[in-house]
Amino acid sequence: MRSLNPLIATVAAVLVGAPVWIAAQSGNVTLPQDKGPSTINVSSYPPQQQKAYKLFVNKCSKCHTIARPINTTMTKTEWEMYVKRMMHKPNSGISNNQGKEIFEFLAYDQQMRKDKNPSAFHKMLTDDEIAKLKAQQQ
Ligand code: HEC
């Protein structure tokens, strides 16, 4: 018998792999941060930050709960790195300008809300800690 048409073989491999790939991109693991509040009261924030908050809620809730970033505390440098990391995930739907606006919101919110009461928030988890939670939840 002739070996399988390579095109069909490739399509079949992609179809079989797709659910795994989608699961890997969706961050479908529950982190402790996901269980906290899912809104921020921004009524005292400057108008520009209130606008950026809407963009943040819209863009950063695509793959995981918006509670995740709302309840994670990081330094400004870590937020900068982290927004870039999220932006560069496949299909993030976040442009460079949007990433910058969201980063500025997160840095402001960090200072106004999180730095004043750090023990109320979760420190960012390491990749290893996330991998462990994923393994436990499967
Ligand atoms: C394309 C999907 C996707 C989008 C969009 C996305 N994230 Fe994520 N996020 C993930 C995944 C997946 C993880 C789990 C860690 C990893 O694989 O990088 C994660 C983890 C996180 C964490 C946990 C950090 C830790 O180590 O405890 C934070 C905070 C976070 N994201 C913030 C954001 C912010 C802020 C945005 C919007 C700028 C955003 N995410 C948009 C997929 C996404």
Secondary structure: elements and pairs:
Blueprint: H1 6-26, H2 47-59, H3 67-70, E1 72-73, H4 76-87, H5 96-114, E2 122-123, H6 127-136
Parallel strand pairs: 1-2
Task: Give the tags.
mainly alpha; Cytochrome Bc1 Complex, Chain D, domain 2; two-stranded parallel sheet; single chain; 3% strand; 138 residues; 2 strands; binds heme C
Overview of this structure, please?
The protein is mostly helical and 138 residues long. The protein has a single domain (6-136), classed as Orthogonal Bundle (Cytochrome Bc1 Complex, Chain D, domain 2), CATH 1.10.760.10. Helix content is 57%, strand content 3%. A two-stranded parallel ribbon has the order 1-2. Helix 2 packs across helix 5 (96-114). The longest helix is centred in the first third of the chain and has 21 residues, at 6-26. The site of heme C has 22 residues, from helix 3 and helix 4.
Q: Low-confidence parts, pLDDT < 50 over ≥5 residues?
A: none
Strand order, sheet with most strands: 1-2
CATH 4th-level superfamily: Cytochrome c-like domain
CATH class: Mainly Alpha
Q: Rg to the nearest angstrom? A: 19 Å
Number of domains: 1
Could you give the order of the helices and strands? HHHEHHEH
CATH architecture descriptor: Orthogonal Bundle
The major sheet is characterized as: 2 strands, parallel
Strand content: under 5%
- The span between the termini is 40 Å
Count every helix, treating DSSP H or I runs of 4 or more residues as helices.
6
The kinds of small molecule bound in this structure are: heme C
Q: How would you state the average pLDDT, rounded?
A: 90
Estimate percent helicity: 55-70%
* CATH topology name: Cytochrome Bc1 Complex, Chain D, domain 2
Broad structural category: mainly alpha
